[in-house]
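pasting for ref
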Amino acid sequence: MTVVLLHAFPLDERMWAPQLDVVPDALTPRLYGRGATMDAWASSIADEVDGELVLVGASMGGYCALALARRAPERVRALLLVGSRPDPDSDVRRAARAKTIELIRNGGPDALWRDMAPKLFADPGVADASLLFREPDGLVGAVEAIRDRADSRDVAGELGDRLAFVVGEHDPFVSADDLRDYRTSTIRGAAHLPNLERSEEFNAQLEAVVARV
């Protein structure tokens, strides 16, 4: 069984450093550059990793994890989604994606970071710009893949008790109420990336998921 940690936008796989103390053998693949769609990313990951999987996906990584679960549900022993959701983008969220793409093209990664950091972290002191992925084309491609992802509510339903969600108390993108149909826990004092802001609390939940399988 392999634990796979799938990172959030606009960061890269280095965001999982606090979790490697708990799951040192976990794989942390970089998602950018794996194709134009979330399904292509999932196919790429599935081809790289053999056997049964525990998937942990943060935000964008959660969408990839759901796409992988759609592709190979029999391989997924557990799925933990962090600041992520199974439904597709609404018209409002799609409009926000367009603005993000424009921001990247006009201002580059630094402008994106200035815009997103307050949404990712409740505590500005935790916002580490060194974790930012800095290739504009890769960032734009990621936003497009997120925007165009499939509705995964059917996948979430089929996973049943193999699926759990974690959200930060101050996450501006998804709340526990949005996920009331699923097993969901809230980490106090965190925004969109509780694995970085409240790593001890998050790691305890990660350990529990791995222990159950």
